[in-house]
Amino acid sequence: MSALGARRERVLALLAEREGPDTAAKICGLCVQLAGVSGAGMTVMSAAGARGLVHATDPTARYLDDVQLTVGQGPCTEAFASRAPVLVGDLNAPDQQHRWPQFVDLAAPVGVVAVFSFPLQVGAAWLGTLDLYRASAGSLSSQQLTDALVCADLATQTLLANATGPGGPVGLASLDQVDMHPVVFQATGMVMVQLGVDAAEALLRLRAHAYATGALVTEAAGQVTEHGLRLEAETP
Amino acid sequence: MTDPHPGNPATAHTGVVGAAAGRGRGRQGATAREARLAGDFVALADALADDFDVPEVLQLLAERCIDYLEVAAAGVLLTDQRGGLQVAAATSRTAEALELFEIHAAHGPCTDTVASGHPTISRDLAADAARWPRFAPQAQQVGIRAVTALPLRLRAQIIGALNLFHTVTGGLPEADQQVAQALADVATIGIVTHRAARDSLQLTEQLQAALNSRVVIEQAKGILAQYGGISTDQAFTVLRSYARRHNRRLSELALSILAGRTLLADLASTPPDPARSSTEDTGVEERHATHMRRDATS
Lengths: 236, 298
Fold this sequence. Notes:
The structure holds 2 protein chains of 2 kinds.
Chain A: H1 3-17, H2 23-35, E1 39-45, E2 51-56, H3 59-71, H4 75-82, E3 86-88, H5 101-107, E4 114-122, E5 125-134, H6 142-163, H7 172-175, H8 182-195, H9 199-212, H10 217-227
Antiparallel strand pairs in A: 1-2, 1-5, 3-4, 4-5
Chain B: H1 9-13, H2 16-22, H3 26-45, H4 54-68, E1 73-79, E2 85-90, H5 93-105, H6 109-116, E3 120-122, H7 135-141, E4 146-154, E5 157-166, H8 174-228, H9 232-245, H10 250-258, H11 264-268, H12 279-297
Antiparallel strand pairs in B: 1-2, 1-5, 3-4, 4-5
Helix pairs in contact in B: 2-3, 3-4, 3-8, 4-8, 8-9, 8-10, 9-12
C-alpha cells in the first residue's frame, strides 16, 4: 500500500471513531486536529458563482466564508478558481500582503494569520473547497499536508455520496443543511430592479456598499431585503 | 518472430509456455505473447483515457483470449444498472447465441459465475449435462464440448463474467486460466474506475445545477419583491403559484425572469392558486397580487 493509501486508512479509522450524524462536521473537526489548525470550513461552489457553506467548526471559519463572499477574493475563492491548493503560512509576510488586500483587511483583525484551502475535485469536475485557518504563522508539515489532502478527498466523497442520499438522485435534501446565503441573492435581485443592472453588476454593487460601510455582504443584503435600503445609481 | 529477451528466466518459468508449446509456438511465441500481453493490460485498464469505451474493452478482452489461449470462442456478459445481464462482447455468432441462451434460460456456467463470483468450469459438458440440463445440450449441438467461465470481479463487486468455449473436452490448463483471469481482472478494474469517474462527474454536474438553481430562484424572488413592493416570502408564493398554474419548473421560471423573458406584469396578475386550500395562504396571494397590480400600473 502506498504511503498515501496507508494514511488514508488511518484517517478513515479516526473518522469512524468520531461521534455524530454529520459527516461534513466530523471531517472538518478531524482535519482541524490532524492539520494542527484553529478552524475549518467546507464550502460548495459552482462555476456560475453560487456559494454555500456546508459546515464551519467555529465562528471565525464561518466569518471567513462571509468575508470572501463580501470581497470576492481570498484563499477559498482562489483555490476553487485555480483548482489547486492555496497554502499561505503567513498572511502578513511581505510577499503575501498584496495577494488579497481586502480579504486581509477583514481577516487579520480577527486573528487569522495562516490560511490553507484545498479544492474538492473529482477528475475534471470540482465542487467546492475545504478551508483551514490558523491563528499563528507557519506552514503545514508534510504529514499535515497529506492529512489535509486526504480530508479534502473524503469531503468530496461525502458531498457526492450525499448527492445520492435518501433525498433522491439529485440530492437537494443534502443541500438543505448548506447555508447558501439566500439573503445575498435575494438582495441581488432587488438591486437589479433598483438600478436596472444585471445580476453580476448588482452583486458587485452590493459588495462595494458592504465594504464601504464596513459591513459584511450578508449584513448589507439584510438591510436591502428587510429595511428597504436602496442602492443609489452610480454618479458618472 | 524473434525473442527480444533470449534467456530471460521469467520466460522460462512462466506457465504460459506449456500451453503455447502445446500449440507448437514454443518459447519464442510465449515471450512474444508476454510482450503483447503487457500492452493489452495497459489498453484494458486505461479507464481514464478520453476514448475509453466499455464495449470496445470487453471485445478486446474476448478477442485476446482467442488469440492467446486454446479457446474456440469467447463472450462477455455484463450486469446492467437494473441488475439484468447483457451480452457485452462475443467473438463469434456461436458465442453470442450461447450467451443469449444462458441469459434467457437463466442458467449456465456464465450466469453461475455472475451469481457466485467464482470460476465455473466444465471440462466435459456431456458429463455435466445434469448440472445444466438445457444449456449443455444446446452448447453440444453447436460443437462446444467444454466451458470456462471466469468472473469480472473487483473485491465484492461482480460486474459480469468472461465465458470461454472449447470445441474439445479438457478445458484450459491452469496457467492459461490464470492468464485469462488476469486479463479479465485488468478489464474489470478499468471498467469499475471508468464507471466511478463517470458517476462522479454526473453527480457533480447535478450538484452544481442544484446550487445554481437555488441562487437563481433567490434572485428572482428579490426581483419580484422589489418590483411588487412585497416581501421575499410573498414573492416566493407568487412565483410558486405562477409556476404551478403555467406548469413550469420553478428554476426554469426564475431563469426566464432573470433573462427578462417572463414579464413581471404577467406574474403580478397571477390569480391565487386554486390548488391551495389554505385560506390564509390564498389571502396572502390575493393581497400581494393586488398590491403588485397597483405597483405595475403606477
